Amino acid sequence: MDKQYLTPAETVKSIVENGKRVLTQSRLRTLVLSLLAGFYIGFGAELATVVSHDAAQVAGRGVAAFLSGSVFSLGLMLVVVCGAELFTGNSMLASSALHGEITWGHLLENWVIVILGNLAGSLIFAGMMFASQLWTAPGVADHAIKIAAVKCQLPFTVALVRGMLCNWLVCLAVFMATAARDIPGKLFACYFPIMAFVASGFEHSIANMYFIPTGLLLAAAQGREVPGLTWTACFRDNLLPVTLGNILGGVLFVAFAYWYVHLKVDGRRSRQSRPGDAS
Predict the structure, then answer these.
(1) How far apart are CA 124 and CA 35, in angstroms?
(2) 3-state secondary structure of 250
(3) If you ran DSSP here, which 8-state letter would residue 226 be given?
(4) What does each of the 279 residues of the chain score in pLDDT, given as a tens digit?
(5) Which of 22, 174, 199, 220 has the fewest CB within 10 Å, making it most exposed?
(6) Is 266 left (phi over 0), alpha (psi -120 to 50) or beta?
(7) What residues pair up with 268 in beta bridges, in sequence order?
(8) Partners of 264 in beta bridges
């Protein structure tokens, strides 16, 4: 009977081996997959906005946060099962670089292409949702604008720490999804950590590339000037600290930690643990 999951040590080896794709994958393919990831996270974000816009009035803020996180998890499910390049999940490439399978230059090149592709996909999707006029439903636009404004008003350190906590969970979701050997297992692996980070109020850079521009577009359409909600604040006050936090959280707490525990032995890379030796 086939194994239903990989052990943590086997999972790290699989992640390291998978990271070698950046050596052969074309930049154009990476860009297309990055655009798709921006779309997929956008689907989760818009669904979370619609589902949660009046839930707090009916069931309370805690239940509203839980519902928002539950439906938002669709985004990572699409990324993992359908295949796409998501910047936050690609923090796991640090394991491959640490183990010498790819260079840090390859990692940085991938990150630059992927984050730009994710941004483009998120902006395109925000524009499509704006053009759909689905925001005319009572209360939805106001809720979307409020979400964006709150994110732009976070202090730098708060946004940084929330970004770290967020991608710690996102990368654990990727880790568990890699360990799962079937589709239901991968879906559950995505659901619980993503639900947890959204319900907790942590900050995800790619989701915010959708949330904040959507709020800006809707505020502009209504002729509203919302304190703190500007394009400058979007990039400087939110995306900059949140992205840095996402990198730190994913690289330190997941990619480095599990590489160190399972692949680094006595201060050097274990020859026995090399990905190519795994069967």
Answers:
(1) 9
(2) helix
(3) -
(4) 467 899 999 999 999 999 999 999 999 999 999 999 999 999 999 999 999 999 988 899 999 999 999 999 999 999 999 999 999 999 999 999 999 999 999 999 999 999 999 999 999 999 999 999 999 999 999 999 999 999 999 999 999 999 999 999 999 999 999 999 999 999 999 999 999 999 999 999 999 999 999 999 999 999 999 999 999 999 999 999 999 999 999 999 999 999 999 998 644 554 444 444 443
(5) 220
(6) left
(7) 265
(8) 269
- Report the alpha-carbon distance of residue 163 to residue 45 in Å, rounded: 16
Q: Which domains does the chain have, with CATH numbers?
A: 8-263 (1.20.1080.10)
Orientation angle between helical segments 156-179 and 240-250, nearest 10 degrees: 40
CB 151 within 8 A of CB 212: yes
Alpha helices per DSSP H over the chain: 8-19, 27-52, 55-59, 61-72, 74-78, 93-98, 104-132, 140-152, 156-179, 183-200, 205-221, 231-232, 240-250, 257-262
Q: Provide the token pair at 107.
A: 């990692």
Contact assessment for residue 101 and residue 188, using Cβ atoms and an 8 Å cutoff: no
> Which amino acid, 56?
A
Can you give the length of the chain in residues? Answer: 279
CA distances from residue 220 to 146, 148, 215, 216 in whole angstroms, order as listed:
13, 13, 9, 6
Residue with tokens 């393919």: 29
